[in-house]
Design a protein that fits this description.
This protein is an alpha+beta fold and 299 residues long. The protein has two domains: 93 residues, 434 Repressor (Amino-terminal Domain); 183 residues, Beta-Lactamase (2-Layer Sandwich), CATH 3.30.450.180. Helix content is 49%, strand content 11%. The protein contains 13 helices and five strands. Strands 2-1-5-4-3 form a five-stranded antiparallel beta sheet. The longest helix has 22 residues. The chain is elongated, with a radius of gyration of 25 Å.
Length: 299
């Protein structure tokens, strides 16, 4: 389907969705009289437009699927007047090609999601696991992740950024038998996931610093490689400074309840006695806690 036809279908879907919600609205709920001559199932277009504070003609065009631009403010007004729930509001914004603003309630939900995820990370006690946010900052982890990848609790803000650490930490580079393959895939995924942040200060600062200080980043960033999966499913050989070579399979999950969060899980395999080596690292960390359990993430 070409873009023009796709846009037409999307605008029609938006119009049909708005009409269906308008038809559910009862005049009495808004202090309006139904009257004996009312034919509309719910509110009339002019009534809804007046309640939402927008022009009747403009709203009519919106329901008709006309090619017009709609602001986030208008969408918020329509969602409020139509008393949409969170899923309906999200659907409305996506149909209108708008980034969904975050409400206070959604911020609270995000905090709850992070708390639950931290509990899950700690539950996977024998599998290194960590969570990243939309900036690719590592914001939660478990003990196993610390003994393999370094003590995240002792790292500064820059080190906690997965992209910065991948290119700027010499010890991190030495962890991977195929660091170049890992770094190029990570970079391609970072670019794909951060398209919507181009122009934001944090994004520009990170790219500028890495372009200046990392020859590999400076060489690969202009290639515009794109990959949608943060760390593709597969196996990695990790060369740990104490345990030696370890082989793990890994997978990254996008969190449905908060799509800006990604959880990466490494599972040790029996190749190269990886399971035994990881268990020994965990035992040593308990005896001499050079690695401490992660704090709960700030909500």
């Amino acid at each position: 389907m070409d873009k023009t036809k796709s846009d037409m279908e999307r605008r029609k879907e938006l119009g049909d969705f708005l009409k269906s919600r308008r038809n559910r609205m009862q005049p009495a709920d808004y202090g309006l009289s139904a009257g004996p001559r009312r034919k509309a199932k719910g509110l009339r277009r002019e009534e809804l437009a007046q309640l939402a504070g927008i022009g009747q003609t403009w709203y009519t065009w919106l329901e008709q699927g006309r090619d017009i631009n709609v602001s986030a403010g208008v969408l918020e007004s329509l969602a409020r007047i139509m008393r949409m729930d969170a899923e309906e509001r999200k659907h409305l914004f996506l149909l209108a090609h708008h980034q969904l603003p975050i409400t206070n309630q959604e911020e609270d939900n995000k905090g709850n999601v992070r708390t639950v995820l931290q509990n899950f990370l700690e539950h996977w006690a024998d599998c290194p696991a960590f969570m990243m946010d939309y900036k690719w900052d590592i914001c939660a982890w478990n003990r196993a992740a610390c003994v393999v990848f370094g003590d995240f609790a002792q790292m500064g803000p820059k080190e906690l950024n997965a992209v910065w650490r991948c290119f700027m930490s010499a010890s991190y580079k030495e962890l991977f038998a195929d660091w170049e393959g890992h770094a190029r895939r990570l970079l391609a995924s970072f670019r794909a996931s951060c398209t919507r942040f181009i122009g934001e200060p944090w994004f520009k600062e990170l790219v500028d610093e890495l372009s200046e200080q990392s020859k590999e980043f400076r060489s690969w960033w202009p290639l515009h490689d794109i990959m949608s999966i943060p760390i593709p499913i597969g196996k990695k050989e990790i060369r740990h400074p104490k345990a030696g070579s370890m082989v793990m399979e890994h997978i990254t999950f996008q969190v449905y309840d908060d799509p800006d969060l990604k959880v990466t899980l490494y599972r040790p395999l029996h190749e190269k006695e990886t399971v035994e080596k990881l268990n020994k690292l965990l035992e040593e960390a308990l005896i001499t806690p050079a690695v401490r359990a992660p704090d709960k993430p700030e909500l």
